[in-house]
Amino acid sequence: MxxxxxxxxxxxxxxxxxxxxxxxIFPALQALVRRGLAGIPIIGVAKSDLDLEGFxxxxxxxxxxxxGVDARAFARMSAQLQYVYGDYRDPETFQLLRQALGTAxxxxxxxxxxxxxxxxxxxxxxxxxxxxxxxxxxxxxxxxDLASAQALNRILHSHFPESAIFRIDHYLGKEPVxxxxxxxxxxxxxxxxxxxxxxxSVQVTMAEDFGVQGRGRFYEEVGAIRDVVQNHLLQxxxxxxxxxxxxxxxxxxxxxxxxxxxxxxxxxxxEVVRGQYxxxxxxxxxxxxxxxxxxxxxxLHIDTWRWAGVPFYIRAGKRLPIxxxxxxxxxxxxxxxxxxxxxxATNTVRFRLSPHVAISLGARxxxxxxxxxxxxxxxxxxxxxxxxxxxxxxxxxxxxxxDPTLFVRQDAVEAEWRVVDxxxxxxxxxxxxxxxxxxxxxxxxxxxxDQGWHAPAIAATVRGAA
Length: 466
Fold this sequence. Notes:
six-stranded parallel beta sheet, alpha/beta
């Protein structure tokens, strides 16, 4: 196996007429062409019986539905498009692809297809000698549990070295997630208090006010734990808890995140609550007696000097009151209550990752007047959305350049699965909850009763401004 070096000189996406390509890949490609990706073949491979003009029409329809057509960029992209029609199990498909690649020797293959076809495509690429010097991008889920993740990695490694495998989790390409990493290590004031001496607890909430939106069949295969907890939310916790990266090389951040994953204790069934919203069983594609969770709450412990004894509470769910992702860090109370008006007051640090970016420090200030009484305020830094790079644009651009920083490494995938594996086979029953609530009441037993779950507000500013 030959590892790829330098920028890719062709982009090939399998599943080119599928939903992921329609929603994400075509818009990302147009944006990359607009920003300078030019002159390399863009080859779609699929089983849909289209000719090249039909494929270009599909691309235009995608752009019309997701952000609009940039006439100049689309004209350039259209000229670079090629289409290979064929079955992935037919060797002739890969011979046609080899011809379409022409003199390209460093292609990037994007497998926008179900994981059970990865082996078929990898073997087809190898049989046509199309894998030498190539890179391959695969979408999550990276397996269904630890054993299947290891099996999937063996399949990929049989034809590609680890350095050529780019496991894409679009969440890592989001601007707010990048901002979380930046804020932690670009500001000196946070580090002295970012440890067990000052932090009482951390809560991470990923809430959606909608249901499965016609994707019941898919959700039956994953559930909330596999869909967002094992990957997105453990990644967020790793960014919150990792040590500073050593150096600026591509693996510096990934090495520290791996250490954070390995320090997370495997989940115990009594520290997990599962829920299912009323009405889920009536969704299209859902089994009549489904026990799949649409809500999960858990208490996580991290076995390091910095975080020993600090509980991390994570919850994610559908049909909750609002759609948002928010981190709520509660600091310990001052050692002595100097003022009687706030004997139990605590400071907080809040990171809102969606639907907009906001970082706030919760503090108390004196109310004007003679009395020594105060009020809670937020010292708020809010990001006003501009012309942001979309996650897929950022990640595809990185993969084409061969930059693996924002992609998930094999050892990290397996470390994440080790955290959740114990509760996949011994999960507690899914308790019912009403749509529009914060999940089943059983989740309340996980958190400190003096504190309770923090409920994110709809507005970015939840307390008075200072």
